[in-house]
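User: I've been trying to design a sequence by hand for this structure and keep getting stuck. Would you show me what you'd pick, starting by listing the structure so we're on the same page?

Assistant: Good idea, let's start from the same input. This is the structure you sent:
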């Protein structure tokens, strides 16, 4: 009984062909001799795959059910661009930006700094903040964490990211009403928000 049909399920980012290539099957593989565990180990070598279940449907079909990593942001580091998942794993290197993902810009290799930047990216995506704009998260030090959205720089510092960005949403109408062409907003302080016009931006 040879494998002559492979069905892939659960994939959104990888194509069927890419998942099948991960199996590394020969031309005339036997359904009975091939090990499901060995095939699973091969598929799990891809950073895109979080989990896999392989089932043999006799006489000739192999079913590969995958759970993929979810891309959360782009990491711009040392002139290169990578798709990163929620846990900070690099999923793939890219040659151009994907507009719907926030971009994290950092030169340091500090994992704690990347974790903080990913928390900001997750909140930006989950809450739909700045949904129509390209968002860049500049991570040099946790206390200096900032977002750049269009011509606006937003200092968020470390921690309470959701709460801080909600404060900005609440202030947005007031900023518009006063006609302030904001270029810099500092949300790091719990009792005050600093807004500077675009020409005074730091």
């Amino acid at each position: 009984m040879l494998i002559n049909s492979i069905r892939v399920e659960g994939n959104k980012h990888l194509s069927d062909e890419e998942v099948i290539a991960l199996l590394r099957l020969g031309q005339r593989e036997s359904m009975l001799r091939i090990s499901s565990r060995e095939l699973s180990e091969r598929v799990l070598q891809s950073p895109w795959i979080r989990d896999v279940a392989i089932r043999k449907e006799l006489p000739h079909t192999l079913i590969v059910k995958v759970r993929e990593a979810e891309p959360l942001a782009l990491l711009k580091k040392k002139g290169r661009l990578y798709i990163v998942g929620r846990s900070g794993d690099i999923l793939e290197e890219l040659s151009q930006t994907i507009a719907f993902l926030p971009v994290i810009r950092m030169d340091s290799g500090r994992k704690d700094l990347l974790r903080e930047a990913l928390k900001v990216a997750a909140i930006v995506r989950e809450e739909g903040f700045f949904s129509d704009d390209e968002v860049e998260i500049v991570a040099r030090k946790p206390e200096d964490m900032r977002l750049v959205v269009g011509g606006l720089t937003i200092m968020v510092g470390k921690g309470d990211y959701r709460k801080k960005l909600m404060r900005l949403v609440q202030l947005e109408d007031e900023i518009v009403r006063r006609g302030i062409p904001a270029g810099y907003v500092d949300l790091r302080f719990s009792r005050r928000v600093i807004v500077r016009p675009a020409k005074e931006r730091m």
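That's my pick for every position. To get oriented when you compare it with your attempt: The chain has a mean pLDDT of 87. The radius of gyration is 23 Å.
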